[in-house]
Amino acid sequence: MAAIEIIAGNEPPQNAMGTRPVNRLLLSMAIPMMFAMLVQSLYNIVDRIFVARLGETALAAVSLTFPLQMLLLHISVGTGVGVNALLSKSLGERNFALVRRSALNGLFLGVLTSLVFVSVAFWGVDFYFQNQKVSGAILAYGRDYLRLVCLFSFTLVGQVLLERLLMSTGKVVCQMISQIAGALINLALDPIMIFGLFGCPRLEVAGAAVATVIGEAAAMLLALYFNLRKNKEIDFSLKGFRPDWAVLGRIYSVGIPSILLGALGSVMVYGLNRILLGTAASASAVAVLGVYFGLQSFIFMPVFGLNNALIPIVAFNFGARQKRRIWRAIELSCLYAVGLMTLGLLIFQIFPAELLRLFNATPQMLAVGVPALRIISAHYIFAALCIEAISVFQALGHGLESLCAAAFRQLALLLPAAWLLSLLPDANAIWWSFPLAEIGSLIMVAALIQRVYARQIRPLPD
């Protein structure tokens, strides 16, 4: 109790998330995140371009590592979402003892996550590839790449969690600088490490992993510096720290659904590919789907940046019992998300052929892809509202609702609809599964958000 009183007695000044005008606050937090996430999207594409110059075998090997890499990322981000929601709520309540416990227990979970993936580096990588019946050069390339990524997994985990701590207290510019710096260092080192430029040894696929790890390590150290020097709301002292099982449970009550939420996308893409492979234009249809998901990240990433900005604002003001600020933040985020998605809708409707030609599309791929991009993008405005509603669930500690909404859309609606539509003689019918699933998801999300509003937001004082 004495330690808590000392921490609570030295209260930092009021946080900007409870005092700054909501519109300016939301934009000041969201715009840097949008930019950083767009840079991250560009990095993912360019990174694979460099690896592809080594040959198709090298690109295939790196592609095979994608599911395990994404699992590491989803665990890190999901843990960060749980820490973000609990820490921001504690700040709003001015419970600085819980703020400290949230941060330190979140970092403790990061250490445990890293240890699990280090064990995978030593004992799981060979099994991972052998289970996929991979051999030869693909096995050698993939093993080298994945082993390095898993062995140094603490760089990604540390980067994500430390950046989430900055986000939780509104230090979004610092978070943006850290994220962009890591991506740019990675981009600069990719050709040097892969092809052996400027006197460096030619590491080929392993060089891509080395560049990735160095970029993540640089971002992690920069985020650590910003936290220690500028994040005065959090006490990072390790004195007397012990894992708090109650805090860990509260972090994962939001974090585990978020982890599963990220994993659902992989299942959905896998299922869609299986369905498309049974169609007449199977190769072109699968290629179009892959191109679409690459292109749509440039539309969805800004909306996800808006989503990430909304979570700490809603969580903080819920803790501070500021009903008007909560509702104003939700209204503005929905308005901006719909605006961004409308822009994306127009781009896909007007320039589908031009977008496909960026990927050297064949005539058959254009024949399949032009109607596909136009039909799929019809769901964008509905998706904007669903994404922002899910962020409200996460901010208020309803991770299960966000998981249910995503699972309902991707597994219960989209995949069955795609399979049924693939049985129709019209080859383009299958793409209507996207807007149909999104409309059904929006109806479910609207019912869930109404219930959450009635139970948690409406009772707050005006």
Structure, described:
The chain is mostly helical. The chain has two domains: 20-243, no CATH class; 256-462, no CATH class. It contains 18 helices and no strands. α5 (96-123) packs antiparallel against α8 (153-168), α9 (172-195) packs antiparallel against α10 (205-230) and α17 (399-422) runs antiparallel to α18 (433-457). The two termini are 34 Å apart.
Instruction: Specify the structural class.
Output: mainly alpha
Percentage of residues in helical conformation: over 70%
Whole-number total of structural domains: 2
Q: Which whole number gives the mean pLDDT?
A: 81
Largest sheet: none
Q: What is the helix/strand order? A: HHHHHHHHHHHHHHHHHH
Q: What is the 3D form?
A: globular
* CA-atom Rg in angstroms: 23 Å
Low-confidence stretches: 1-9
| Terminal CA distance | 34 Å
Describe this structure in a few short sentences.
This protein has 18 helices and no strands.
SSE order and pairing:
Blueprint: H1 2-9, H2 22-52, H3 56-64, H4 66-92, H5 96-123, H6 125-130, H7 136-151, H8 153-168, H9 172-195, H10 205-230, H11 245-276, H12 282-319, H13 323-350, H14 352-357, H15 363-376, H16 380-395, H17 399-422, H18 433-457
Helix pairs in contact: 2-9, 2-12, 3-7, 4-5, 4-8, 4-11, 4-12, 5-7, 5-8, 7-10, 8-9, 8-10, 9-10, 11-17, 12-13, 12-15, 12-16, 13-16, 16-17, 16-18, 17-18
